[in-house]
Batch of 3 targets.
Target 1
Amino acid sequence: MLDHLFEENPHVREELEPDEIAFIKDLIIGESENSGKPQFLYQIINNKSYNIDVDKWDYLARDSHFLGIGKSFDHERMIKMSRVIGNEICYRDKTVDNFFDMFYSRYRLHKTAYQHKTVLLFNKLLGDAFRSADRHLGIFENVNHMRRFTYFTDSILEEILKNEDNENLREARNTLNDIIKRSYRYIGTVEDGNDQGEEPGNIVCEANFDYGAGNENPLVNIPFYERGNTHESFNYNPDQLEEMLFLPGTFQLNVRYRFERI
C-alpha cells in the first residue's frame, strides 16, 4: 500500500532517498535487522515488545470518542512521562494505573464493539457472502492489486444485491439478505465442553477478549523508571501489581455465541 501511495504521488517519492523509504516501512512493521538505527525508534508506531505505541493510542482514543464510550487514560500524560533508557522507551512508575486503564479500554472496546456478538455474526455472514461471490467477481484478487483495492468499497454489496438475475450470485445474495432482514437471533452462549456443533440453521461465533497479552498481565512487560533515576529501568512483578491495582482474576475470556435462524 505504501508503494502504491508513492506511485500515485511521485513528487513525494522524489523527496525521499531509498534508505529513507525503507526506514519508513521498518517503522510501520516495527522492526529492522540491519538498519543501524536506535531500536527504540521501532517502538513508536508498532511496539512489539510491550504493545504500547501511537497506533494503539490513536485508535483507542478515536474509536472511544466516536462510539461514545469515553476513555479513562491520558496518552498525552504517558508521552510526557516517557524516557529512553537502555535503547527502549520507558515510563514513569506512577503512570502504571494509567496504563491499566488503557488496556482496560482496549478490552472494553472489543467487548462492546469490535467483537460484539452481532458484529461477529455479521462478519461471518459477510465472509460467507464474499467467498461465494468471489468465484464470479474475483473479490479477493484485489488484495494483491493496490489500485483495484482502493476501489473496493461497500459498492460490492450493491453489485451483488442488484444483480437479481445472476444465478451465480444467488447464494451470496441470499446471505446478504439474511443480514438485511436480520434472519438470525441470539439464543445464548455455548458452555465449554457442551458444544454440540452448529446445528442445522444455527451459527456459533467465538469471541476472544483479553488485555492485549493473552492470559498474561500486560503491565509486567512495561519498562518503568523511578523519579530521580532516569538511567535505569525496571519491571513490576505480578505480586507488586496485585498490591497496587484492583486487577481482574483473569486477563482472557473466551465466549461462544449461538444464533438460530428465525
Target 2
Amino acid sequence: MADYQPLPEIEEQPQPSLTSVKPTRVVSVDVFRGLCVFLMMLVDYGGAVFPVIAHSPWNGLRLAEFVMPFFLFIAGISTALAFKKVPNKVDATSKTVLRAVKLFLLGVLLQGGYFHGTKSLTYGVDIVKIRWLGVLQRISIGYVVAALCEIWLTHRTQREVKFVRSYCWHWCLAFSISAIYAGLLYGLYVPDWQIKVSNATIYSLPSNDANLYTVICSVRGDLGPACNSAGMIDRLVLGVDHLYAKPVYRNLKECNISTSGQVPDTSPAWCHAPFDPEGLLSSLTAAVTCIIGLQYGHVLAHLQDHKGRLCHWSLFSVLLLVLGLFLVFIGIPVNKSLYTINYMLITSASAGITFCFFYLLVDVYGYRYLTFILEWMGIHSLSIFVLVTSNLAVMSIQGFYLSVPANNIVHWIITRFVHT
C-alpha cells in the first residue's frame, strides 16, 4: 500500500489519553493490514481442514468473506494518508495509475494460472486461458478509483476540513457506482447459455474431446449461481476461458462434487461452468469499499484527538451496519461472489469496528507488544502475499522430494490432513 506522511507533532503527554495524539506512525494501520494477511493465510490453508472458516458456497458470511473487504478498506485508509496533500494533481494521477498497473500485472502473474499450486511441480499457462482478474487486480482497481477520487474530487481549504462538504463528491461517486451496480445486477436480461468443458488436463495434449452443457436462464434479476448478470458480463467481456475455473459454488449440494474435486455429469449444467468471484461487475461495489475506507482515512488525517477519531469511526460503522442489516431484512442476500451492496456495507462496518479496536489498543493505550507480529506482517504485506499466499514458498519447499516428486512433505501434509 502507499506510504503516508506522519501526523503533525504536538506536545506529548506522560499518560495515554483519549484527547492526545502522539507524533508517531499510526501503528494500527500496519496492524490491521497484517491482520488481513494473516486471515488470508488462515482461510487459504486452514479452510480445507476447517470448512467453517472457508468461503461460503454462495450466500452467507464466514470468516473468509471478510478478507477481501478488509484489504480494500485499509487500502482506502492508506490512500487518504498518502494523498493528504496533493501539490500536483497530474503528477499524482500518473503515479497512481502506474502503481495500479504494476499491482494488476503482478496479480495476473501470481493468480493467472502460471503457477500450478501445491499439487503440481509444473508451471506455465496457456495464454488463451489465463485468468485476468484476482485478488491483487481487485485491490488495484479499488485503489485507483479511491486515489483518483481523492485527487480530483476533494474540495477542502487549508483552514478547516468539513467532512460532508469537503468530500461530498466522494459520496456522490459511491452512490453512483452502487446505483450502476444495482441497475446492471437486477436489470440485465440473462438468456440461456452454453458451456463447453474440455476433458483434457494441464498435463495432456490438446484434445477436441469436450462436453457441451446448456444452462437454462431467460430471466432478469436472478442472484443464483447459474443466471446472474455478473457471470454473464464476465463471459461476454473477458471470455469464459479467462474466468476462475473452480468456483466455490461447486461446494453446493446441487453440484454433488466428489472428494477428488470432480463434478459429476449428472450435476446441473452451471456446476461445470467457471465463475470469477473477482469479476467486473462485483468490482464496482468493491471499489466503493475502498471509498468508504478513504473516509475513515480522512478522519485519521485531519482530526488530532483520539476521542474525536473514535467517535466518528464508531458512528459511521454503526450506520453502515444498520443499513446493511436493513437490506438483509428486506430480502437481499449477503453474497461475496456478487459483492452485493449489503455485503459491502456489513463487511465495511466490521472493518471499521475492527480498526477502532486496534487503534484503541495500540495507538491510544500503547499495547504494541501484543500485536508486533501483525505489525511486522502489515509492513511487509505485499512480500508475504507473494511468497506465502500465492503458494511460492510452499512450492519451493515442495520442490525437494525423495526419489519421486510425489514423495515430498507438502504432499504428505495434504494427503493426511486436507480432504478435497
Target 3
Amino acid sequence: MWMFKLNIWAFLWLFVGQYGAFALQDVTADLFGAENYGTVAAFGDFYADKQTDIFIIRGQSELVIFLADSKIPYFKPKVNITKDIFPRDAVITSVVPGDYDGDSQMDVLLTTTIQNSKMTNVFIFWGNNQTLDLSGKLMLNKNFTDQPLVMDFNGDMIPDIFGVTDSVPPLFTEVCYLTKRVQRWEKALSSSVDMRSPHSNAFIDLNRDFTADLFLTTEGPKFETWISKDGNFTKEEVTLAEPPVKIIGQSSFVDFDGDGYQDHLLPVCLDATCQRGAIYMVKSGSAEWVPVLLDFQRRETIWSFVPGKPSQPLALHFGDYNLDGFPDALVVLRNTSGSGQQAFLLENVPCNNASCHGVGRMFQILWDQSDLGAIQNAVMATFFDIYEDGILDMLVLSQAEDKHDLIIHALKNNYEADAYFVKVMVLSGLCFNDCPEDVKPFGVNQPGPYVMYTTTDSNGNLKNASAGQLSQSAHFSLQLPYTVLGLGRSANFLDHLFVGIPRQPGETEIRKKEWTAIIPNSQLIVIPFPHNQPRSWSAKLYLTPSNSVLLTAIALIGVCVFILVIIGILHWQEKKADDREKRQEAHRFHFDAM
C-alpha cells in the first residue's frame, strides 16, 4: 500500500514539475505597485549598482526612470524628465541610455518629433552622480530624417549618433561625436543612402571577426552591408535581394541555428492586408531567404502579424527563455477573423518540414500560454531579467480602452528544468580603478561588443552560441545591456568564451580576448581596459546558484537530520538498556544480601 502511495506522489511531483517548467507568474504588483503604466522604452543600469533599471515614457512627453530596489515594489520611479523641458507639442519617440561624453556615467538620449514635421530632434541629458543634469541639456544642432542609430563609429568605446540629416537627395549619412560634450559632425559613409523609414539599422558583427559591422535598411525595400575592414566601413558589392512579400517588418540579428554566426530574421506579411504572416531568415554569407515560420493556424482560427505603423513597426524581440542555446522570440499577433491581439512566445525548435531544412531550426508558436493569453489588446512584448538570476522574464504592454498610456504587465518565467547559462556584459573600458569623480564603471550601455562561446555538451557534441550587445537602438528595439547565452542542461565548464569590441580606423589587430573554463550560471562583467591591449582586459565573475545547488543542500540537510535521528534513537535505546541493566544489578545485590 505504501509503495502505491509513493508512486502516486512521484507521479504528481513529475506532473507538477513538468507543468511548472513552462509556467508564467504575474508579478506586476511586486514590481511596479500602482505605477504600471507607460511605454517601456529602454533598459540600463542608471544607478551603476549592477541592477538593470527601466526607462518609461508617459503621456508621450515625459520620461520616468524606474530604479531597481531590493524591497517591494522592486522598481520605483526616481528620476523624472518632465514635458516642460521640451518644446511645445514635442512627442518623445525613443530613449537611448549611454555614456556619450566618455565620463563613465550614464547619459540619456531622447528623440522627439513635432506635429507636422518629419524631422527628428535629438536631446542629450548628461549624467551626474546617478542623476541627470536637467538644466544643462544639449540639443543637437542638426536634425535627422528618422530616429538615429547609436553606435561606436570610430571605435573609441564612446557611443556616437549615426543617421541621415539631409531631407533632399542626395541623402548622405553623418555621424555626431559628443566627446567632452562638444558636438563634432563628420560625413559617415562614402556613398549616399536612401534610408527606409522606419529603419532597422544594426551595428553587429556579420562575418565573425569580432568587429561590429554596419547593416542598413534602404528603400526598395533593400539591404546594405558595410563591413568593418581595419576599422573602416566598406560596402559589400553583393546586396541581399528583397524577399517575395508585400509588407516587410524590422530586421533582427541573432544566432538562430547556433553556428556562431549572426543570422538575419525578418517578419513579413505575404499579402497587402497582412492576413497571412511569415518569418524569413537568411544565413550569414547566403542570399537565400528561408521561411522559419509559416504556420499561424490554431484550430480553426488564423492569426497573423499586426501591421506596423511608423510609431510602432512590426518587430520581433528575442531572448532564450528556456536557456537551450537557441534564441526564442516574443511577438504580438492578431486574430484575422476578429479584433483580438495577444502576445505569443515563439520557441526555437528543430525543423520538422521541408521548407526550413536548409537551416535546421524553425519557430513554433506556443499557443497554450494562459498567462500571456490573459493579457488582452497586447501591443508590445519583450524579454527582461527581472530578478537578475539569468532567466529571462517577460514584459507585456497592453492598451486599455479608457486610458491613454499603455498598461505594463510583468510575467516571471518559472522555467524549472535547471538549464544553465552565462550572462555577459561588456563595459566601455574607458577607466577601471581610476574613473573620474570615483564613479563606478558600470551602467554605460555599450553598443558594439560581440560575445561567443564554444563548448562541449553532455553528448560530446560541439556547441556554439553568439550575440551582439546593443546592436539596435531605434523604434523600440528594447535590447538589454547584456547578453544571456543558454548552455542547455550541460553543467560542464564553458570551454571557451570570446569577447570582441570595435576597432579604430586603421587598426589592423582584432580586439578580442578569450576566457576559458567559465563556471556555468555565472555573470561575467568584462572591462576592456585598455582597449588596444586585450591581454590586459579584466573580468569580474558573479555566480548565480542553480536549483540543483538548492536541492543538493536540502538533500544534504535531510541526510544529516536522518542520521541525527538514527543516532538519537540508538542513543535512547542504549540508555534504556543501561538503565535496565542497572536495575537488574541492584535487584541481584538485594537478593544476595538476603
